[in-house]
Amino acid sequence: MDRNSVIGLLLIGALLIGYTWYNRPSDAELAEQQRIQDSIATAQQDVELNVDAEPMPSDKMETDLAPSDTLGKDSLLMQQQEAEMQARYGIFAGVASGSEEFTHVETEKLKLKFSNKGGFPVYAELKNFTTYDSLPLVVISEKYSNMGVEFTYPSLGNLNTQEFYFKSSQGDISISGEEESSLVFSIDIPGRGTIKNVYHFTGDGYDFDYTTRFENLDGIVTAPEFKWELSALHSEKGIESERNNSTIFYKETDHGRDYLSETSDDDEIIEDENLEWIAFKQNFFSAILIGNESFGRGSVLKSNPYGEENDSLTQFYTANIPLVSNGDGVAFNGKFFIGPNDYKTLKVYGKELDKVINLGWGIFGWVNKYIVITIFDWLEQTGLSYGIIILILTLVIKLILSPLTFKNYMSSAKMRVLKPEIDELNEKHKDADPMKKQQATMDLYRKTGVSPFAGCIPMIIQLPILYAMFRFFPSSIQLRHEPFLWADDLSAYDSIMNLSFTIPFYGDHVSLFTLLMAASTMIYTIYNSNQMPTQSQPGMPNMKVIMYIFPVMMLFFFNNFASGLSYYYFLANLISIIQMVVIKNVFIDEDKIRAQIAENKKKKAKQGKSKFQKKLEEMAKQRGLNTK
Q1: pLDDT of the residue at 253
Q2: 429, part of any domain
Q3: Cβ atoms of 299 and 227 closer than 8 Å
Q4: Strand 257-259 to strand 222-233: parallel, antiparallel, or no bridges (unpaired)?
């Protein structure tokens, strides 16, 4: 070490010693501190000994201290606190301390609560809805929500606006109808700039505009990032179903809507695209942040279901979203939506926001949006109970599908009439090459004019309807808390018996609608299989057995599902059974079918071989088989 370094260290040490000596407390201050500590110790002893003495008035205690000594002590303490705040917050030290105050905003549909500490909403309640237990429906809870903008102060590290005390532009707000009002939270940095959170409300909406601005703070506020954490409160009848329908939905620019896992911990880093919106989606309600312009890249989203041991919270959401400031200092410009997952309500916002409601992908979602919801909304205007509406909806859908149903049963009847000839062919060619057997079978179908696939096509066309209803009923907020017969909520499971134990994969209750659905499915399966016996191939499982096991599986699978869904499937089964009986006994005459098949054989014999049959024969010849 050279001489200059040694001298520098000695000077620094001397300065530290001098500073410590200069700021040391005086003898009077030391004596006063000792006196105060002795007084505190004596008071504590008096409390421990339960001394029943009258406490000294606070004004008397203050008069015991010399005014000049008290002021000096407070001044030193304040200087120390100011130095610590300055070291931690820099130019924001002046707004990093204060008292928390709240501003309440009430519209026709929302009750909101804003804190001046951070300038963000800390509470949101939907006025027109309640929980299953008739409590206020809280989407954002003050206890389980954190919201703020974090940024990097280059010389100090990361700071968050949650640590700053803003000034509110006005007091509580109450509006309705077409009335409008604004609320501004701001902090001013003397000689530098301002931070503002600006909100604009309308009296009849579920949304409100939100803008964050950093004005004249370039070089101090860098890399701003919106950080939001929220725990969803349990509000529905079945917490398990509620958890399984809650997660984060989001939309990337130039991409469709996507979402995280609904049943397990999941996270996603959006590196290559900007986000247009994110939704903390609960079962029937959502808190959504919508950008007028895209967010920055690099958003981090996390969703974590709470465990079974927690009976008050369903899902924990986290979103860290980079913000991009424009030339006017605007870091974010968009709006909050806090409201129901209602298709018509969300559809008006565009940007695929209605897809927060998972109505199914592809053709299944199309069926729900343009057929099922249209019919349901039309029936809803009648004012009938939702149980009757589901009944009428089922009848309308079955009526629309009745031509396909008739074609399916007619195909089954033709196959039933043709079955003896097919059995005869199978016996005749049981030891023959499979290709030759297939050729003979197809030749029989060609001659009789019967297609083995004619019954499959109507069933395939009906599958989108079946799956669409599977997605529609658990997602329909209109059914929420709507009773029918013994079910007190068509959007949740019904129960006629609560068990004192839990059956694995079944639950702790007995759903009557599920029992009825499973029983009707079994009856339909038995009746239908008797109309067209199935054949089991060697080495293949017996299809009848599988068909009979399926209703039992449904009994376990649907016990915790929405009772409206089980009720719909039960009605659909009943109508299908009635259709089957009527068509078989009124519209299908097997003698006429036999006559028609015989007539078809005569006509086809004159027409020669079809292209398909010629192709089969050519393939057989290539394998060295005699096709005569």
Answers
A1: 87
A2: yes
A3: no
A4: unpaired
